[in-house]
Design goal:
Elements (H helix, E strand, L loop, with lengths): L4 E5 L6 H12 L8 E5 L5 H8 L4 E3 L18 H6 L4 E4 L2 H6 L4 H13 L3 E6 L3 H5 L3 H13 L10 E5 L13 H18 L2 H6 L2 E4 L4 H8 L6 E4 L6 H8 L3
Parallel strand pairs: 1-2, 1-8, 2-3, 4-5, 5-6, 6-7, 7-8
Helix pairs in contact: 1-2, 1-11, 5-7, 7-8, 10-11
The structure holds 2-phosphoglycolic acid (PGA).
Length: 249
């Protein structure tokens, strides 16, 4: 059975005080599923969150990082810096990074390598825009995003990879892909993996769905055979909602 994962992407929300309040709320929740739980606060709160959650089942992860080891990259954060504050997993390729910060396929492949070289795990995001779906190109777009970002990796690296399909038109819009649309894309992703690598990789790599997952729709989405969990934005900012999603398995 594949790992089940629910990760909360806090985006640019919650200062230190608000982070404390949300973490205290998260600690009060009851976990009834076997899903791994992760939260991604902003950089400034990672060390604090790590310390607060160190003895719990909630892993603190990062929303992004730079590919360089160190040097003259004003405003950026390296894999080593994340490691040094207890962070072992990083989200890469989120559509907001691609769209607002011009992250290219080439940069993302370098980021993936830098994370893996530093023994970190990666949640690699990708997904089509509305126009791609309307024109029927969604599978082609997704295939090229995952090929460019991940398919240079040797087979043994895939243990550190989690994929996250996030159709751009469903992020923060309240519009969710139907469970059938999610399943269809996840099965397609697995078939692309299957064609490039030995079968074990496609079978064991978790593929998360992201885009307006809420307590009310999580159970149906997670019930699909190729959906192994969710990357949650808005609903991750309320402890009760987030844990209702964690417990939807
Ligand atoms: P959303 O965001 O749940 O608010 O749609 C998902 C994401 O961006 O990962």
């Amino acid at each position: 059975m594949r790992r089940q994962i629910v990760a909360g992407n806090w985006k640019m929300n919650n200062n230190l005080t608000e982070t404390d309040i949300l973490i205290a709320d998260l600690k009060r929740q009851n976990k009834t599923s076997n899903a791994e739980v992760k939260i991604a606060p902003t950089y400034t709160n990672l060390w604090h969150a790590y310390q607060a959650l160190r003895l719990t089942e909630i892993e603190v992860i990062a929303q992004n990082m730079h590919f360089a080891e160190k040097g003259a990259y004003t405003g950026e954060v390296s894999a080593d810096m994340l490691q040094s504050v207890g962070v072992k997993t990083v989200i890469l390729g989120h559509s907001e990074r691609r769209a607002y910060f011009n992250e290219t396929a080439e940069m993302l492949a370098k980021k993936v390598d830098a994370a893996l070289d530093n023994d970190m795990n990666v949640i690699f995001c990708f997904g089509e825009e509305l126009d791609d779906r309307k024109s029927g190109n969604h599978q082609q777009v997704v295939e090229s995003q995952i090929r460019n970002g991940l398919f240079h990796l040797e087979e043994d690296k895939w243990d550190s990879i989690v994929m996250a399909y996030e159709p751009v038109w469903a992020i923060g819009t309240g519009e969710t892909a139907t469970p059938e649309q999610a399943q269809e894309m996840h099965a397609f992703i697995r078939s692309v993996l299957q064609s490039a690598y030995k079968p074990g990789i496609a079978e064991k790599t978790p593929i998360l769905y992201g885009g307006s997952v809420k307590p009310g729709n999580a159970e149906e989405i997670f019930s699909k055979p190729d959906v192994d969990g969710g990357l949650i934005g808005g609903a991750a900012l309320k402890a009760e909602d987030f844990f209702a999603i964690v417990n939807a398995f």
